[in-house]
Structures are given as C-alpha cells and as structure tokens.
Specification:
- This protein is mainly beta and about 210 residues long.
- The protein has two domains: about 90 residues, Ribosomal Protein L25, Chain P; about 80 residues, Beta Complex (RNA Polymerase Alpha Subunit, Chain A, domain 2).
- The protein is built from three helices and 13 strands; from the N terminus they run E-H-E-E-H-E-E-E-E-H-E-E-E-E-E-E.
- The strands form three sheets. A six-stranded mixed β-barrel has the order 1-3-2-6-5-4. A four-stranded mixed β-sheet has the order 10-7-9-12, with no helix packed on it. A three-stranded antiparallel β-sheet has the order 8-13-11.
C-alpha cells in the first residue's frame, strides 16, 4: 500500500497569516522528530485526502526527509468547514497503532440485478496492529447475499496480527429488497347510497 505524499514546510509565521496565504498550519511530532510547526498547501491536502481524513495514514516530505505519519487531529471552522489546523504523528512500520479504515462493499451490481441493495450501517471500522500491516480499506463481497442477510464483523477476513476493535457479532450492513413502485389509479367512485333516494322520503302525507 502506498500512502499519499504531502510536501510540508517548516512554519515560522503565525497561523492566521499562513491561512491567508492558502496554507494549513499544523504540527508534526513523534519518537524520531522533535515537535515542529509546519504548513501544508491547502489545495494539495484536499486533493490527496478528499477532506480532513482524520486517522488516515500519509507520507510527508519535510525538507529532504520523508516520514510516515498518522493524521491525529483536524480542527475545522464550525461555520464554513475550513481546515484550521492539522496534527501529524510520525510512525514506524513496526509500531502498534489503532486506525479507522473505510469499509468497501464489493458486488453491489450483482445485487442490483436481483433487485437487492446494501443498507450500510457502519462506514468504517477500527483496527489494531502494526502500522505497515493495516490495510487502506476493508473489502467485503456481498454479491451472493440474499434479502435479509446481515453482514457482521465476523465476515471480515484479515491477516494475522490485525485485530478488529469491535464485537464480532456487530452488524455492518443488511441486504434489503428494492421495493417495486407501480402506477395505480387510487381514485374510486362510491355508488352505494349516493344515487338512490329513501322511499320513505318520497312519500307524501295526506
């Protein structure tokens, strides 16, 4: 697996000044590096990670050095969603880490052919293991599932040394049938008692 590489620069300016220049202020720290203030190109960050991507694994280039990192924290403006600050932690390939990764359900087209679909309940799952062994995403094949089937944590197949931080019986998704919609004329005319006259009402008293 190859993580995206983000070029960062050491930062000496105040955060607000950096933001006005189109950069995201941040900090990187770890066992192999002293805590360093950095700045990242905002457009490049969003292009590579499609958003904040907290807990994602990335590779940064700081000066002439490249380092593997985890995005530990992302601060965002609560009004406009702008990324205000990013916190990165360096990791080694044999470090034991916990990381949330997305779940990708494969075989959806086979379900659609049979008028079924996947109702996804859990979009990502947390794993624990060596940094180098944790996958970018979890893939689950649902192509042969039937209506009513549940996909649980126990359906995930991982290599040795990777632990899922969830109960094995937790439901991740459910297979449901696509409801058929047909045009029908719901209008009906009631004829009972509307076109008849009570015979007693037609009698004339003498």
């Amino acid at each position: 697996m190859s993580e995206p590489v983000i070029i960062v620069s050491e930062r000496f300016e105040k955060p607000n000044k950096v933001r006005k220049q189109g950069f995201i202020p941040g900090v990187v720290y770890g066992k192999d590096i002293k805590s360093t203030s950095i700045k990242l190109n905002q457009k490049e960050y969003k292009k590579l990670l499609h958003g904040p991507a907290k807990n994602a694994k990335v590779r940064i280039k700081l000066g002439n050095e490249e380092k593997n990192c985890i995005i530990k924290e992302v601060q965002k403006d609560c009004i406009n969603g702008q990324i205000l600050h990013v916190e990165l932690q360096t990791i080694q390939s044999d470090d034991i880490i916990r990381l949330k990764v997305p779940i990708v359900f494969q075989g959806k087209e086979k379900l659609t052919f049979r008028k079924l679909l996947v109702q996804e309940l859990v979009p990502e799952i947390e794993l624990r293991g060596k940094a180098a062994d944790i996958p970018e995403f979890i893939s689950i094949d649902v192509g042969d599932k039937n209506a009513g089937d549940r996909i649980t944590v126990s359906d995930i197949q991982l290599g040795d040394g990777i632990k899922i931080i969830y109960d094995e019986n937790e439901t991740l998704a459910v297979i449901i049938a696509i409801k058929e919609h047909s045009d029908s004329d719901d209008s009906s005319e009631s004829t009972d008692g509307t076109n008849s006259t009570d015979s007693n009402d037609s009698e004339v008293s003498q």
